[in-house]
What we know:
Blueprint: E1 9-12, H1 22-39, H2 48-55, H3 60-67, H4 77-98, H5 105-114, E2 118-123, H6 127-136, E3 148-150, H7 165-173, E4 181-185, H8 188-197, E5 201-205, H9 216-226, E6 230-232, H10 237-243
Parallel strand pairs: 1-2, 1-4, 2-3, 4-5, 5-6
Amino acid sequence: MKPFQHDWVVLFDHDGTVVDSETIALESAWRLTKEVAREFPGAQHYELDEFVKTFAGKPYREILKKIYADSLTSLNERDIDRLVAEEEKRAIERLTVEAKATQGTPEVLSYLRDDGFKYALVSNSSLQRLSACLTSAALTDYFPSEQIFSAHDSLPVPRPKPLPDIYLYAVKCLDAEVSDCVAIEDSLSGVRAAVAAGIGYIIGYVGGTHISEDERSSRADALQSAGAQQVIERMYDLIGLLSATPV
Length: 247
């Protein structure tokens, strides 16, 4: 692979990539879902590990629709809006105190900033959730507001990954070309969004705690099948890829 140039733009996913937030948020969502199932019987049941594996990278609205897809019970949009708001509140409460950077991420961000790379955060999460996570993970200095893009809040209408909209919007705002961008993604929906947007190079990341060591090989295969050209387990490895030298 040829070395990346400094005019390439590195676009990071957030949850499970820059911040190790997926396990925290998904456990919170799972607990809420168990409560929802008592209020609205008929939801498909998931154990916690299966819930995390199945729904990593997916918005809670999509999760609710999935678990009630084959149920005789249907949730109306008002119920879904209420539950999505409750999930957001609970997740932020926990992430505000529990979210940590994924291993190696502060060092990678320091390298990018000091070496003159342009980079940004491109996420499905709300700006409020992103702010809570970045503050808890001590990463706010690396991401000024003009480098944060939320599919929930930055677009006229929320259009989450795997739709490409947030990538296309970020690239436009950064005055870049999609072919000169690198995306770092931990989820299938994220990789698919990057592919749909035409991002020039896509790197899968399987180092988050929501992906067990036993799962990493199969997840890497799945990310590559979805369109990732390369997969890394350590965030540090990104420095080697960007500099075309071993880490």
